[in-house]
């Protein structure tokens, strides 16, 4: 793990936060398009593409993975309506974020999303073990074994210079994409994140409040909320609405 440890010390990290973030509105965010090497799941012909930026060291991301992702996957991805792209980010604590990025990237065959599920499911155990100065490596070995990686293969991944370069590229790319915190999403051509108001946290889309049926949407990372958001954008796609020309909903 030493190559990763050396790498993360020199990087400017994003924050793991869910609230108080805004994004400048844009006609069509260039990072919406799928890129070579992206980790994507769902039909290439899906009506809607969603990009998630998340950190394996972010508790809010783990909450989303547990509470919202199963609904999104079963109701929208597996039914062919949504193409979902997951882009990892490097946040604090950087070593935990970086190890997660490498482990998921090295997972056997098409098991990236399974590795991601496990990394978030085990996140609290990883933090607790690290705080107790326990054997964190054993936790990662257990996750790796579940996705076809032996301890030796995992160690080889950690030591591979290509992996440290990949982590560096991930950090730089997310910054260039204008992503300031995790989790953040690109949907309908603009960044979806949150902002604090006097009434509490709400979703912002392209820098302005996301409105569905005239109502602001509370920034909750659960299945019901994201079902509502996705159905909203799917309805607009069915009606042929060009989100690039819409300033707010």
Throw out a few tags for this protein.
two-stranded parallel ribbon; 249 residues; alpha+beta; 10 helices
Topology:
Blueprint: H1 2-8, E1 15-16, E2 39-41, E3 48-54, H2 59-67, H3 69-77, E4 82-88, H4 94-106, H5 112-121, H6 123-131, H7 136-146, H8 151-159, H9 161-176, E5 181-182, E6 184-187, E7 190-197, E8 200-205, E9 208-209, E10 211-212, E11 215-216, H10 223-238
Parallel strand pairs: 1-5, 3-4
Antiparallel strand pairs: 2-4, 3-6, 6-7, 7-8, 8-9, 10-11
Helix pairs in contact: 1-9, 3-10, 4-5, 4-9
Plain-language structure description:
The chain has 249 residues and is α+β, with helices and mostly antiparallel strands. It has 10 helices and 11 strands. It has helices at 2-8, 59-67, 69-77, 94-106, 112-121, 123-131, 136-146, 151-159, 161-176, 223-238; strands at 15-16, 39-41, 48-54, 82-88, 181-182, 184-187, 190-197, 200-205, 208-209, 211-212, 215-216. Strands 2-4-3-6-7-8-9 form a 7-stranded mixed sheet, sandwiched between helices. Strand 8 (200-205) and strand 9 (208-209) form a beta hairpin. It starts with a helix and ends in an 11-residue tail after the last helix. Mean pLDDT is 88; it is low at 6-10, 20-26 and 243-249.
Cα-atom radius of gyration:
18 Å
Largest sheet: 7 strands, mixed
Task: Report mean pLDDT, rounded to a whole number.
Answer: 88
Give the beta-strand count: 11
- Widest sheet, order of strands: 2-4-3-6-7-8-9
Number of helices: 10
Residue ranges: pLDDT <50 for 5 or more in a row? 6-10, 20-26, 243-249
Classify the helix fraction into a percent range: 40-55%
Terminus-to-terminus distance: 46 Å
Shape: globular
């Amino acid at each position: 793990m030493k190559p990763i440890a050396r790498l993360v010390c020199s990087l400017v990290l994003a924050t793991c936060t869910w609230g108080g973030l805004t994004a400048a509105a844009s006609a069509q965010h260039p990072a919406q398009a799928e890129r070579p090497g992206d980790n994507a799941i769902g039909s290439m012909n899906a009506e809607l593409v969603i990009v998630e930026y998340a950190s394996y060291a972010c508790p809010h991301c783990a909450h989303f993975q547990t509470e919202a992702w199963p609904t999104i996957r079963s109701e929208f991805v597996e039914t062919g309506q949504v193409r979902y792209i997951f882009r990892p980010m490097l946040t604090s604590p950087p070593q935990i974020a970086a190890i997660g990025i490498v482990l998921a990237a090295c997972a056997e065959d098409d098991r990236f999303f399974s590795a991601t599920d496990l990394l978030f499911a085990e996140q609290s155990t990883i933090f607790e073990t690290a705080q107790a100065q326990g054997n964190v490596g054993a936790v990662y070995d257990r996750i790796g074994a579940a996705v076809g990686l032996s301890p030796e293969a995992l160690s080889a991944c950690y030591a591979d210079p290509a992996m440290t370069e990949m982590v560096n590229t991930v950090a730089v790319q997310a910054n260039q994409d204008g992503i300031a915190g995790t989790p953040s999403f690109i949907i309908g051509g603009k960044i979806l994140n949150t902002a604090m108001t006097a009434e509490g946290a709400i979703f912002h889309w392209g820098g302005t409040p996301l409105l569905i049926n005239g109502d602001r949407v509370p920034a909750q990372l659960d299945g019901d909320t994201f079902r509502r958001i996705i159905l909203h954008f799917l309805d607009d796609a069915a009606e042929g609405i060009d989100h690039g020309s819409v300033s707010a909903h």
